[in-house]
Amino acid sequence: MKSLQNINKVHFLGIGGIGMSALARWFHQQGAHISGYDRNPGRITKQLQAMGMDIHFEDRPALIPENLDLVVYTPAIPSSSILMQALRDRGIPMMKRAEVLGRLSEEMNTIAVAGTHGKTSITSLTAWIFHCDERAITAFIGGLSKNFDSNLVHSPGAKILIAEADEFDRSFLMLKAHTAVITAMDADHLDVYGDREAMIRAFRQFAAGVPSGGRLVLQSRLPRMQSKASLIRYGAETGNDCRFEDLIIEDGNMRFSLIWQEEKYADMQLSVPGRHNLENALAACAVALDYGIGPDSIRKALQSYQGVERRFDYRIRRQDCIYIDDYAHHPEEIKALVESVRELYPGRKVSGIFQPHLFSRTRDFAKGFARSLDLLDEIILMDIYPAREEPIPDVDSGMIMRRMQNKQKQWLTRTGILQWLQKRKPEILLTIGAGDIDLLVPEIEKILSDSP
Fold this sequence. Notes:
It is a single chain. By secondary structure, the protein is of the alpha/beta class. The protein has 3 domains: 4-95, Rossmann fold (3-Layer(aba) Sandwich); 108-304, 3-Layer(aba) Sandwich (UDP-N-acetylmuramoyl-L-alanine:D-glutamate ligase); 313-450, Protein-Tyrosine Phosphatase, Chain A (Alpha-Beta Complex). Helix content is 33%, strand content 25%. It contains 14 helices and 21 strands. It has a 7-stranded mixed β-sheet, with helices on both faces. It has a 6-stranded mixed β-sheet with strand order 16-17-21-18-19-20, sandwiched between helices. A 5-stranded parallel β-sheet has the order 3-2-1-4-5, with helices on both faces. Strand 18, helix 11 (359-373) and strand 19 form a beta-alpha-beta unit. It is globular and about 60 Å long. The termini are far apart. The relative contact order is 0.09.
């Protein structure tokens, strides 16, 4: 197959996904003609269509263009798909999204950010720091960066690739990283791995793939891993290569001193709130400092960083009403979110609306979800968002609800949620989940904005 930069016609199966759409944008910038399929139209597909991409939403092989050079597909597309089979029958070269990223990573100095939490925020902030230092980069971000207003950053002639390294389907093992970041290894994607031990073995394999002369940037609570790369530890604890001191939380901003290999850089300010985001910032700073970016550029980037949509995303920020939308879809992420809100707004009542993501994740972590959601003062559960999965017998949101100790809990439809909000005025409201709960956000904003 010809070089990726020289491909003329690419078709994407699952083009509306956040990772797939970033690749589609990249090929588009190389001058390729882009077409694609997705199950439903959405904000991202509308953006891609506005760029001139030909997108269809029907399982009809007749809608697939002729003379394709490459098909890129997401693992979320089942192998039984009519479109998948039709493309195979045509004999067109087919690659998973991760394979394409892997090919790109071989050609560039690659920073790969992995971990079960925080990788999107770290990827986007790392890209923003490099941008503020006027470095030419290509970055694939697993969310829409508010600073770039995109999930792709691409400078012509860039030699540095910053990419989110997804553990789902073992995709991250296809990346050739010069610098690898690992943020967390909490059990997840057990539908792929079977158990946490198998997942950790995959992370160890990812770390072992970093070559001699490279860097392994490791969250300090994680166990040491075998790697030829030099180890950089980050975290709040004393003794880490990258840590913070003198933390002051004020009006949602965090002021601190950044410590890098015992050098102290004062007067840092992160405008995206949450202690978990401060830890994410340490990882991004460690990478940047290791690449020779100075403290002035880092200081400028941290203060101007706006975050990622659906990551501690303030939708309303008034004295009488706080509304935050967040992508958290794992018990540990929900716990970190609620604890950060409690730290910022002590003594205030926190309500949450949670949409579980995947039947398998609900089955595997129902107890953990219940414990994390119990940290809220009141909670509304939605039906499970199935994504790529078929229903599993006896698995529904009631699995979580029955395990919760909190008496202030309900399981409502979308209409019921909006009716509930019409009658109430939450002090602090969180919408939580990785499904299509974001479609409720504009309606919730309107209700809360119209409240007297």
